[in-house]
Please model this.
Amino acid sequence: MDLIRDLGHLALGSRIKRLAAKLMADGTAIYQDVHVNFQPKWFPTFYYLAHHGSAPVTQIANHLGVSHPMVNKVAGELSQQGLVVSKKDDNDKRRRVLALSDHGQKLVTTIQPIWQDIEAAISELVAEAEVNWIQVLEQTEAALDQKSFHQRFRDIHKKRRSQAIEIIPYDPAYRDMFYEINAEWVEAYFEMEDEDRKVLQNPETEIIARGGQIWFARHRESGEILGTVALHRNDHGDYEMIKMGVRPAARGFSIGEKLGRALVEEARRRQLDTLYLETNCKLTAAVNLYRKLGFQTVPLDPDTHFARCNLRMAMALA
Model:
């Protein structure tokens, strides 16, 4: 049984690392065979200095596409072997550069033919495998430059999490969640006001009975309530989007957008002319979401019930 092989793409990184470990181990054996005190992990840095001359660590790291600490570590080992020295830059005495020592320069002459044989052995291996590994690696690296493995995971994870969310209408069983989720975000940025408490503690009388509606975002598998929003008919007869909130741990999965679109769809079904909302301009992510949904800034209502609100937005539906 070979678990790493059986896992396929899930263990791709581990399999590449295992293959690299085999090649590195054979590389160590090769240098032992030819009685050269050299390690495969030193090769990129040593080769760079041998063919490009002295250079600062940062330059080497950038040209090799590896980290600064990695080059530093290898340089330290090469220095211990007397192959590399650190000296002042001839062009800038304030900075130090790495360079091959006399011993290192002599090793270059000895090791060049060995590298040629190593390259020939690798070429034979590649031909036998009938895979152009250099081309595959270049194509893979180019794809990763366009979009990292991390970002690919995040996009797929976000899509899966988003698809697992269902938007459901108000259920008295989730009354406490309506209060809790909204109180959580209000208290994180502002202070709870009397109007908040009145609406959040009495959603049936303050929202449902006045002709409004409340929606919850629920995870299909766990049943957890992750967000909420409400359509509210105010004292002037205007309809507003209010009390949109998403659990902090569930943000980034388009839950707010799903809730907002469900509310806008209901407003259109009711053939409302205009939909309003009030917010605070410092809630950048929320304001951007509202604009994405189709809201635009309008003059602030002087009769707003909330001290924290300094921005009013509206969406024309008719």
